[in-house]
Design goal:
Strand content of chain A: 5-15%
Strand content of chain B: 15-25%
Largest sheet of chain B: 7 strands, mixed
CATH topology of the largest domain in chain B: Aspartate Aminotransferase, domain 2
Oligomer: heterodimer
CATH topology of chain A: Sufe protein. Chain: A
Helix content of chain A: 40-55%
Helix content of chain B: 40-55%
Structural class of chain A: alpha+beta
Chain lengths: 132, 404
């Protein structure tokens, strides 16, 4: 599924319950995150829940695996990875994640006061794009 | 008792809709809402009386100085202190405790002494003592509480000895709701020659506090939790202690005679209020305390005790819910966990349902860890909380149970 498919699917969902059930499902469908990577090294800081992010590179393209112990955040991570995965560093830099989240009606989760880690996560993704 | 529905009309924020739902505000332990009387008073001061205090030779300055000192007298009355001079305005309770640590503590504590605090302290009554310990080298002792959050007399007295110079305890835990027997603690500490500081942030809001009856040496609380504005707090200190302590900060309004090379200092409370204080906030705080005294602290306590009972009758309806902190006689603070639901997920659903609670370690991380958790969801009551708040909270918890 592409992020455009997701934006389209979201338009058919009424009320926060259906929408977040769907988001939680996206999290559950992510490939399992290995327990041995749940270490401080891969932890994203500044979150009320625990969030992990691990990058990998194939050719020019960077991808990420991620996880959280909170279900909604895990679903949101699935969306973030849908946005960023399999992109080159310059493509990653060009992503307007705020605009995409706004289209999804999820902009509240990128508010700095939420402290759910999504902002720290997108920052981290951009950092990896610089150094990988 | 008072008519809570009438009281709620005094608090504009309670009438808001949140996410299309009635505002179920259950985070008063973090910061309480303000009655219109406080807001009007502050607005009125800015519109009609504002100028600096203790300086002017003109009418407005005289008037506002009178108001500011009148606010001090209201705090004195609220705490039943001997003299208004025993009341120092600070920024908040955190500053009040830091003031004691850096003035009284630095002067009167040595590396042979012990400072005794409980496991249930807020960071504000823990970290200042750790920092001062690192500087001076005294021993920081922590007395244990029960697994249900209860105060255990033997665990306290076990750590209290002739070396104890200061006991710094909370009047009521902001996480567990446990009400500490402060009067007995003070009397036992005094028998060993120790001074006592009470972190009364949570306790002053829910019950009558009488510093003369308690015989405490220092007592700290925040304005914003007592239905007053942010930016102002209170330190009560016994006169002879305040006189013996060095000043906290230096500058205007706290000096007596100043030359280019030297200064002598004013007497308390001015000695501890360097610079222009939070004038309008202090006056607002006075108004807030007046509001509470008008309702009656005993009435507030009776109202909240009834709600605690009601909450306890409803919480068991929610499957897999555990209350952390169930000490006898606890106040209106309910930290909960729900099996299989992350606190952040829980708070998300509660927010969508218009229920405001706090999630996390509640500025008492060691305590939350000691109780066996990383993070807790906390609902807390205020004088304006009602049965409908609790009904909507329980409904939202059930919804979360269904959702995850």
């Amino acid at each position: 599924m592409t992020i455009d498919d997701l934006i389209e699917n979201f338009e058919f969902l009424d009320g926060w319950e259906d929408k977040y059930r769907y988001i939680i499902e996206l999290g559950e469908k992510m490939p399992p995150f290995p327990d041995n990577l749940k270490t401080d090294e891969w932890k994203v800081r500044g979150c009320q829940s625990q969030v992990w992010l691990v990058p990998s590179k194939e050719g020019e393209k960077i991808s990420f695996r991620g996880d959280s112990d909170a279900m909604i955040v895990k679903g949101l991570i699935a969306i973030v990875l849908m946005i960023y995965n399999n992109k080159s560093p310059s493509e990653i830099k060009a992503v307007a994640v705020e605009d995409i989240f706004a289209k999804l009606g999820l902009e509240e989760h990128l508010s700095p006061s939420r402290r759910n880690g999504l902002i720290s996560m997108t920052e981290k993704i951009k950092q990896y794009a610089e150094i990988l | 008792m008072y008519d809570v529905e009438e009281v709620r009309k005094d608090f504009p924020v309670l009438g808001l809709e949140i996410n299309g739902k009635p505002n179920t505000f259950l985070d008063s332990a973090a910061s309480a809402q303000k009655p219109k009387a406080v807001l009007d008073k502050m607005m009125d001061i800015y519109c009609r009386e504002y100028s600096n205090v203790h300086r002017g030779s003109y009418l407005l300055s005289e008037e506002i100085t009178t108001e500011y000192e009148h606010a001090r007298q209201k705090v004195q009355k609220f705490l039943n202190a001997d003299k208004a001079e025993e009341i120092i305005f600070t920024r908040n309770a955190t500053e009040s405790i830091n003031l004691v640590a850096s003035t009284w503590g630095r002067k009167f504590l040595s590396n042979k002494d012990e400072v005794l605090i409980s496991e249930a302290e807020h960071h504000a009554n823990l970290v200042p003592w750790q920092q001062l310990r690192d500087e001076i080298g005294f021993t920081l002792k922590i007395f244990k509480i029960g697994d249900d959050g209860s105060f255990i007399w033997e665990d306290f007295t076990k750590e209290l000895n002739d070396k104890t110079k200061l006991v710094a305890v909370t009047g009521m835990s902001n996480v567990l709701g446990t009400v500490f027997p402060v009067k007995e603690i003070i009397s036992a500490a005094h028998a060993k020659g120790a001074k006592v500081l009470v972190d009364a942030c949570q306790s002053v809001v829910h019950q009558k506090t009488d510093v003369k009856d308690l015989d405490c040496d220092f007592l700290a609380f925040s304005g914003h939790k007592t239905y007053g504005p942010t930016g102002v707090g209170v330190l009560y200190g016994k006169t002879e202690l305040l006189q013996a302590m060095p000043p906290y900060q230096f500058g205007g309004d706290m000096v007596d005679v100043v030359t280019y090379q030297k200064a002598t200092f004013d007497v308390p409370p001015a000695k501890f209020e360097a610079g222009t204080p939070a004038i309008v906030q202090a006056i607002g705080l006075g108004e807030a305390l007046e509001y509470m005294m008008h309702l009656g602290l005993d009435n507030i306590k009776a109202h909240e005790d009834e709600l605690v009972k009601y909450m306890h009758s409803r919480l068991p309806e929610v499957q897999g819910l555990h209350e952390i902190g169930t000490a006898e006689g606890k106040g209106g603070v309910f930290s909960i966990v729900m099996d299989g639901i992350h606190p952040q997920d829980l708070a998300f659903v509660l927010d969508k349902e218009g229920v405001a609670v706090r999630v996390g370690h509640h500025c008492a991380a060691p305590l939350v860890h000691r109780m066996g958790y990383e993070s807790l969801t906390r609902a807390s009551l205020g004088l304006y909380s009602n049965h409908a708040d609790i009904d909507r909270f329980i409904q939202a918890l059930k919804k979360a149970r269904e959702f995850f």
